[in-house]
Amino acid sequence: RVVVRRRVEVPSIEGVKLLEPNSGVAYLKINSFQKTTAPELDEALWSLHRQGMQSLIIDVRGNPGGWLDAAIAVADRFLAEGGIVSTRGKNGIENQNYSATRSGTWQVPLVLLIDDQSASASEILAGAIRDNNRGVLVGETTYGKGSVQGLFHTKSLASGIRLTVSKFYSPSGKAIAEKGVQPNVAVADEQESNLHFVAKQAQGGAEPQDKALQVAIEQARRSLMTAQTVAAHK
């Protein structure tokens, strides 16, 4: 057997589907933020749009983060204006402000699912959505890894040193490091215990309950109704 060495692309977006065809509640999960995340998101959004998407749930639970640029690009898909994130360091070179651009913005009502393992780039997206009142955050306070690392190569060794060079701040100026981003609607991670789940499976098979997702669906319906009411009065 021959093993061929080649680059393997791991999709960063999965679970793209219309949860409720009648109401148009759509869902997708972002596993990490990488170079391909923005184009993958564009493809997923147009696919859901063609299926009748009216509101969207984005799940970043368990997402450890990734590329800063990818998080900014994802946030920019849903923000027509306003800040996304700022970075501040001891050296002024690291002080940067990133803002949304109007072109290519999706106006669909938005719900973001977060938990205590949503970190780094996930928290940039969460902070941008929350501070700009662009959507509803459902779940738990995020991890609190609001720092930027830089890789510095050494001459003496064929390696490098990764150091923290700056920290993230949400559009309102709140530090993300060690504090995280709080949800608008708090839902504890209370999925059914393993014993309960095994017992239910033995009785004919059942999927574990995802309480946070159910709350997110309710919020998506509510946000859609609010948007429709506002549109009707214009």
Protein architecture, described:
By secondary structure, the chain is of the alpha/beta class. The strands form 2 sheets. It has a 6-stranded mixed β-sheet with strand order 1-2-3-6-7-10, with helices on both faces. Helix 2 runs parallel beside helix 3.
Protein traits:
alpha/beta, 234 residues, 4-stranded antiparallel beta sheet
Write the layout of secondary structure elements.
Blueprint: E1 13-20, E2 25-30, H1 37-51, E3 55-59, H2 68-76, E4 83-88, E5 96-99, E6 110-114, H3 121-131, E7 135-139, E8 147-153, E9 160-169, E10 185-186, H4 194-202, H5 211-232
Parallel strand pairs: 2-3, 3-6, 6-7, 7-10
Antiparallel strand pairs: 1-2, 4-5, 4-9, 8-9
Helix pairs in contact: 2-3
Roughly what is the average pLDDT, rounded to an integer?
88
The ordered H/E elements are EEHEHEEEHEEEEHH
Q: What is the C-alpha radius of gyration, as a whole number of Å? A: 20 Å
- Quickly give the structural class: alpha/beta
Low-pLDDT regions: none
Estimate percent helicity: 25-40%
Shape: globular
Give the strand order, joined by hyphens, for the main sheet: 1-2-3-6-7-10
Largest sheet: 6 strands, mixed
Structure annotation, total helices: 5
N→C terminal distance:
67 Å
Q: In percent terms, what proportion of residues is strand?
A: 15-25%
